[in-house]
Amino acid sequence: MQFNLADIVETVASAVPDRIALTYEGENFTYAHLDAEANKVAQMFARAGLGHGDHVALFLKNSVEHVTSILGLIKIRAVPINVNYRYTPAELEYIFTNSDSAAVVVELPEHQDTLAALLGSCPLVRTIVVIGETTAALAAAAAERSVTVVSFADAHNLPATAEFETRSGDDMYVLYTGGTTGYPKGVMWRHDDFFRKPLSGGNPYGQDQRQDLAEIAAAAKEFPDMAFLIAAPLMHGAALYSLFTFFTLGARVVLMRDFDPAKIVSAIETERLQVILIVGDGMGLPLVDEMERRQGEIDLSSLYSITNGGAIWSVSVRNRMLAVKPDLLLRDNFGASESGNDGAFSVDEQGNLRMASSPILTLVDESLEPITPGSDQIGYIARVGNVPLGYYGDEEKTARTFPTRADGTRLSVLGDMGRIETDGTLVFLGRGSQCINTGGEKVFAEEVEAALHAHPAICDALVVGAPDERMGQRVAAVIATYPDATDPTLADVQEHCRQTLAGYKIPRSMVIVDEVKRTPAGKADYRWAKEVATA
């Protein structure tokens, strides 16, 4: 069977209509209620002239409307486009034009005014859907371009039920990457591949994938009453994957407007959270700071697991979380916008990330040939099976990232590097694009960042390669310290790193900043770090 995401969500809503699907800022929505709201929104989009294959940019922070927009669009076979709301106007213009978006959904007044200034450069945008009041600037810009402005509130008066055309597993979902090292790229997922890979075939905690909608419905009815908090914004791939995963399971998703560690720790008690999803140390560090500060004050008994995806989660941060609650299950998922969920890491005594190889995850050389287990050769982590079709509108990068072997097998090769041990275990070294070549030695930025995060005075850090006349590149650190901490000297940091890192990996220069710049999802902004480190 070929799966469609909208069909899956509707199946679960029919199977467990009275179960809570979404909790947002204290308000609960059952599966029946959420599906009814999404039906209304779908009809609102359709009446605005949007339909099968149309790309619609969601220039939104987390909200109920953001969720119903995603669901409403896939119901009518349109394509939601995730937009990083912190992008500069130039980056936003790139997203709107590169994605060929026919419409934009926008809420905040400042976002509306930014969109107004860009409309003249976005000739394909023909419709704007506004949540709340339309600003004068956007109304004027839309009138000048003859762009239709629709009020999101129009959906409220539409029927809660609707008939939609037959959908397909070939329907498209385009997910834009984080763009941490360059402009983001639109990853083209077929719905069926999206279900089988990012959503683990509807069974992330088991081995066998669901075979049809009846199995999904039956599994949802049996799934325990669990609450999953998504700390990341929905414009981030990890958050979108988690949203659809939990909706497929029939679980309760707890969503917040913004990442707020104090509110999250409070919600562990008030919402009886079982699982919290974070994105790397960018979220993990402030979260564990708050957990430590309020240890003994908040009832943490319901919290079963903290799960990471999309960024490096250092051993030091994990150990601090376990010190607060020793029985926590810490799950570190490996994946990407271009590959979905590849499985969970384990961590050895040296802090190395390890994972058993599998038919869908292997190590290859530059010729895409498998590397023999037990070899010391460093290669590329490659994903096999249910990979995306490619990058939207970019054949060159598609060919480079999604190559095809001579036997016709398509791969996803993102630049993650590693080695393979005799028993087939993959040991991850880091992203090749962040590899620093210093005097011929290769240093992976993530390994040094993990060591820096273990320093008691450092609250966040990024590592990049800075130009060096003698070594070609030197390891350069950009760090931020805790407000009540004394800023460490470079010598202090170097001595700390020597405890776990080889000498050539130790930072040779360091810049202290008020705040390390990250995306709203907590992902690293290496372009910014490079500018700071080399200024």
TrEMBL record:
Transmembrane segments annotated in the record for this chain: none
Domain AMP-binding enzyme C-terminal: 447-523
Domain of life of the source: Bacteria
GO terms, molecular function: acid-thiol ligase activity
One Pfam match: AMP-binding
Entries under PANTHER family matching the protein: LONG-CHAIN-FATTY-ACID--COA LIGASE, NONRIBOSOMAL PEPTIDE SYNTHASE PES1 (EUROFUNG)-RELATED
The protein, known as: AMP-binding protein
Annotated source species: Speluncibacter jeojiensis
